[in-house]
């Protein structure tokens, strides 16, 4: 799988789309100032793994920062969003299971 999606103006390189395995997996470089507003996924659980930079997470409990080596997991229906408040690229590995809703991006 070698598809690149445009997600609110940032590329997401799809590695698995949920059609052959029960997961959507993508490499997602996040440019400075990029913002994904709080949202929910009804069909997928989602995990974000930071492999470069530092990301601000937004959720019902407020905001927190995660950095290289950290991950965040959001259950189906859980409100979440994120933004890059830094001057550099933040790179995420995004995993959504079973990958049903994520594959529709």
Report on this structure.
The chain has 105 residues and is an all-beta fold. It has a single domain, classed as Jelly Rolls. The strands form two sheets. A six-stranded antiparallel β-sheet has the order 1-2-3-10-5-8, with no helix packed on it. Strands 4-9-6-7 form a four-stranded antiparallel β-sheet, with no helix packed on it. Strand 2 and strand 3 form a beta hairpin.
* CATH fold label: Jelly Rolls
Mean pLDDT: 89
Largest sheet: 6 strands, antiparallel
- Rough outline: globular
- Kindly report the spatial arrangement of strands forming the biggest sheet: 1-2-3-10-5-8
**Second-tier CATH architecture:** Sandwich
Tell me the Rg in angstroms: 13 Å
Helix/strand-derived class? mainly beta
Order of helices and strands: EEEEEEEEEE
Strand content: over 45%
Assign the CATH superfamily.
Jelly Rolls
Count of distinct strands: 10
CATH C-level class is Mainly Beta
Given as residue ranges, the uncertain stretches (5+ residues, pLDDT < 50) are: none
Distance separating the two termini: 15 Å
Q: How many domains would you count in the coordinates?
A: 1
**What percentage of residues falls in helices of 4 or more residues?**
under 10%
Count of helical segments?
A: 0
Highlighted features:
105 residues; mainly beta; Jelly Rolls; six-stranded antiparallel β-sheet; four-stranded antiparallel β-sheet; 57% strand
